[in-house]
Amino acid sequence: MFTQGRIRVIALAAADMLCIAATWAAVVFAYWWLGAFLRAHGWPSCPWGGYEPVDYLRFLPVIAVFVCVNAALNLYHGNWMYPSAPLGPVEEFRRLCVSSFLTHAGAIAYMAFAYQSMDGRISRAVCVYACLLTAASAQSFRNWMRRALCRLGIGQIPAVLAGSGPAAHRIAAEFDGDPYSGIRIVGYFAGTERIGRKRRRRAWNERDFQDRKIPYLGTLRDIVPQSKKRDIKMLIACQDDRMFRAQMGEFASWFTYIDYLPSARAFPIFGARAVSFGGLGGLEMVNQGRMRVKRFQKRVTDGFFAAVAFVFSLPLFVVIPLLIKLTSRGPVFYRHRRIGQGGREFRIWKFRSMYADADARLAEMLAKDPKLKAEYESDFKLAHDPRVTLLGRFLRRTSLDELPQFFNVFLGQMSLIGPRPIVREEVEKYGSSYAVFSSVRPGITGLWQVSGRSDTGYARRVELDTYYALNWSPWLDLWILLRTIFAVLLMRGAR
User: Fold this and answer.
1) R_g of the chain, CA atoms, integer Å
2) CB 5 within 8 A of CB 30
């Protein structure tokens, strides 16, 4: 069972080695080339790059150190000898950043003590830049490796699934072709007695499992015998709490890893830790959004990054309004009522991407076309919206139409990162999750935007917004910010 997991660990370690080697090579050669270029063009005393790239070959052990630190931080599916479920992407990103810092801090200390007489041939700046680049790119290298493993069909850890309720179906959907998790569902168990095929399909909604080619292996009582037969040591339990407790002793006699996921609802799990009181084990969940210090920290961070982004985008605030005026009649900015924190309404700012009479056109189109009306009422968006101008399509694809929302951030109505602001008609779609959603400020970008944006269904959007509100952390914001850059550059899911 663990063979496939160990293949995965080796592949991830290879990705880490390739990442740190590539970042060091890129920084060393870029720093050397820049120094050589400046010295050749009028700056003979340039302090940058006064070395030969071959001098840095002595730092090859940094590659091994990085892998060892990653292993110490449980970045290889927990236990590298007995790998199981991976860390969440945000926690993995956080630990990779910590690992990069520790590895390069050691390299800088080594430089200070061992190469004081190198006459400037070794640059600490190279190490600092390599540290930042490694932290920013290590997860991307890992994701490329994961996709390669998934396509090759190797390095996938086998597991069995217990249960057939909403949580089990959600897990099956998440793992279906997902390169990140590296877990392959071998089969599922459901019910306490074997019943006819047709009746089982009605009772357990078996069709969804069949579509994903996940076979039925037996009842909940067959879990351990069937898992022993297949030498599977990982169980994902989504069955009823009473049944799980009744079988816990039996599970512990065979399975190395038991992941208990009884509900399909989101919980504040980021930063959670195991606790024990009087011999009873449990989980302490942390809602960082309720801490005043954390909220203040987020407000300051939002203001700083929004100010920096606004300064760099100032030329666009000149060019885009000019292009809007030249290509269509109407105002430059578009303001629309949205729901913010605490259910308070505010007006969101955007560069106008539609025709000036877009609202009238929408009402006319929806009245004439029932299918179009159903699509709009489902997602409050249209896949092919005729109201959008030619320039507006470009602005939307590149997300440049949302630049004026920096003003909403400065006014305290929005955050740089958060759930997407909604209109009043969308409140009912959030149901019982609306209270959680409205407890935080909406954001210019967020978890939904970097997870497919318009390519995801509305129910998925509600789930992502709820997860963000419950699991907010500075690391989650930084992870979303970096992914937003790639999502905008690649124009993924934007309409």
Assistant:
1) 27
2) no
**295-317 pLDDT tens trace:** 888 888 888 888 888 898 899 99
Amino acid at 51: Y
Look up the pTM and report it. Answer: 0.82
Print the SS3 string covering the chain. Answer: CHHHHHHHHHHHHHHHHHHHHHHHHHHHHHHHHHHHHHHHCCCCCCCCCCCCHHHHHHHCHHHHHHHHHHHHCCCCCCCCCCCCCCCCHHHHHHHHHHHHHHHHHHHHHHHHHHCCCCCCCCCHHHHHHHHHHHHHHHHHHHHHHHHHHHHHCCCCEEEEEECCCHHHHHHHHHHCCCCCCCEEEEEEECCCCCCCHHHHHHHHCCHHHHHCCCCEEECHHHHHHHHHHHCCCEEEECCCHHHHHHHHHHHHCCCCEEEECCCCCCCCCCCCEEEEECCEEEEECCCHHHCHHHHHHHHHHHHHHHHHHHHHCCCHHHHHHHHHHHHCCCCCEEEEEEECHHHCEEEEEEECCECCCHHHHHHHHHHHCHHHHHHHHHHCCCCCCCCECHHHHHHHHCCHHHCCHHHHHHCCCCEEECCCCECHHHHHHHHHHHHHHCCCCCEEECCCHHHCHHHCCHHHHHHHHHHHHHHCCHHHHHHHHHHHHHHHHHCCCCC
Q: Tell me if 340 sits within 8 A of 413, measured CB to CB.
A: yes
For 301-359, write each residue's pLDDT tens digit.
Answer: 888 888 888 898 899 999 999 999 988 888 899 888 999 888 899 999 999 888 877 77
CATH class of 157-264: alpha beta
Could you give the residue range(s) of every CATH 3.40.50.20 domain in the chain? 157-264
